[in-house]
Amino acid sequence: MGKDVLGWRKLFGVMGPSTNTVVQPDFDMMRPAGVTNHYSRIYTPNADAVSNETFRAGAELIGANTLDAVRSVMTCNPDYLVMGMSAVTFFDGARGADRFIAQVKEVSGLDISVGSHACTAALNAHGGVKRLAVLSPYWPAMNTEVARYFGDMGFTVVRDIAMQARSWTGIAQITPRQCVDALKQIDGDDVDAIIQVGTNLSMVKLAAMAEMWLGKPVIAINTATYWHALRANGIMDKVEGCGRLLEEF
Asked: Please, what are the averages of pLDDT over each run of 10 residues along the chain (249 residues)?
């Protein structure tokens, strides 16, 4: 069989919520030559009144619609799948993440990189990380799920901040200034690394800059997920300007 002319190394099928406007340009920014990203939108009604009570139900709906997006992207014959939505990969801790991967694999026959396990791999690559701070655009009920997952993986979440976006599209409107303020709130000497979750929150470049002034790993979930997908496929290219993870590991 011949090779895809543009994706001569790998074709990545990427699933992301239809309301998400950040993960696609983020992944394309980190894409090395010969790897192409093929985005399949998970149908997501744009809820304009997301709250602590409704966040999980809304995220679970996205999760339920994911397999349709998987079936759709499979028609371009991708080599590997990448999950461009993080919340559903944190539900019910490590077991929930493994269950999600198994469901996708059953439908597609392909391996997949997901945000939760990619963050774990990124933290382990840096080494010596035990105590985390977490920044999210979510609501507190979802941050509890994120903390549970990291607890299952052997980490302790010391502090977290939920920026409480009121709509799915509103996540993409959270400014770098707001993110900087949040980073300052959750950082401390008792924190080994900071994790940002929520793929529609634009933090790839900001996290890379924050690593320099905080002197510790600051991992944006889109960076971790795409790094994981590249490395899982033996693509070791270093990508500049997106943080230590893609530059060193």
From this structure: 94 96 98 98 80 79 88 98 94 93 96 98 97 96 95 98 94 97 98 98 97 97 98 97 97
Structural domains of the chain, with CATH: 10-116+223-248 (3.40.50.12500), 119-220 (3.40.50.12500)
How much is the pLDDT for 160?
Answer: 98
Q: What is the pTM of this model?
A: 0.96
Helix (H), strand (E), coil (C) string for the chain: CCCCCCCCCEEEEEEEECCCCCHHHHHHHCCCCCEEEEEEEECCCCCCCCCCCCHHHHHHHHHHHHHHHHHHHHHHCCCEEEECCCHHHCCCHHHHHHHHHHHHHHHHCCCEECHHHHHHHHHHHHCCCCEEEEEECCCHHHHHHHHHHHHHCCCEEEEEEECCCCCCHHHHHCCHHHHHHHHHHHCCCCCCEEEECCCCCCCHHHHHHHHHHHCCCEEEHHHHHHHHHHHHCCCCCCCCCCCHHHHHC
